[in-house]
Design brief:
This protein is of the alpha/beta class and 372 residues long. The chain is 45% helix and 17% strand. The chain is built from 17 helices and 13 strands. The longest helix is centred in the C-terminal third of the chain and has 17 residues.
Length: 372
Amino acid sequence: MIRVTYIISSIDKALEFEQVAEKLDRKKFELSFILMNPGGSALEDFVRALGIPVYRITYTGKKGLPLAILKIMRLLRKIKPQTVHTHLFDASLAGLMAAKLAGVKRRISTRHHSDYHHTYFPHAVKYDRLNNRLSTDIIAISKVVKNVLVEKEHVPAKKISIIHHGVIPEDFATIPDSTVKQLAEKYNPGQQRPVVGVISRYIKLKGIQFIIPAFRRLLEKYPGALLILANANGSYAKEIRQQLSLLPEKSYIEIDFEKDICALYRLFDIFVHVPTSESCEAFGQTYIEALAAGIPSVFTLSGIAGDFITNEKNALVVPYKDSDAIFRAFEKILEGKKEIAEMIREGKQDVAAQFTADRKIRSLEQLYLQQK
């Protein structure tokens, strides 16, 4: 039995970690969680309900890192894991250092960002490099992330494993109609059509500022159209809301958070995700979720999309930062029936073949079982 401790920061609810808690082989692995959060969380409740040990380190920001390192080190000396697996930047900084001080030999980190620090916060790259050195193994969630690690941060390729995020296709296929109806009554009571869906934080690199002008043109042709923006908060919110103020009041709705994310996709006639460069997205969970949900999608090739999205095969691909192209893709989806139906079918097949939670869990288990 291998003891594995997950250390995660600033997460309330995350299907990725719920999948690990549910599906990791309990006959081979003894799992525990250390969560760095300001208070309780949906993830903490979920893990505890499964009978898995979970510990909370009260954490509100980087000023608390030294104390968090000390507390995690003490916990690790109590838990005595053979493997620590850290997720997200703060948890990796605290957890890897604490694990090193506690004498944990196997220290795995998953790199959840790509070149974000290189582009926007160069001073933080030194901390990425520190995490790389403290890690005995690094999981890259896409080829883009591996390229950043190898080419920009000079991490030896043999230290890196690519393990993709995954979804459970059945989660999208077995949603009760009553749940979808409740969400529709909540977010689209007027039954407006077509519905264009966006699930993305308000961050400049996500490209939402190029979706809104395309939607404004769509309204000229489809006055009853509705734009749904979920996860509607972030550092670029002021600029996004200035653009939204130019739209008719009832033509859009902002959703801060929706826990029934699988059902939310069912409200959309079109899904759009258009990050502004090849490497600004490390993975992009919405790429695979939208296809698993069977929603015809408009994408730019960023993160994992560059690994498997093909224009007009499983989605429509548009250039970066191109509102006109986004609008034309909207038109093509709404006007094409047979070819769009085939595109939806291909998208579902590609996700089922490459991006299932079971596939991800088996890859993690193989990594944990490797002798170092």
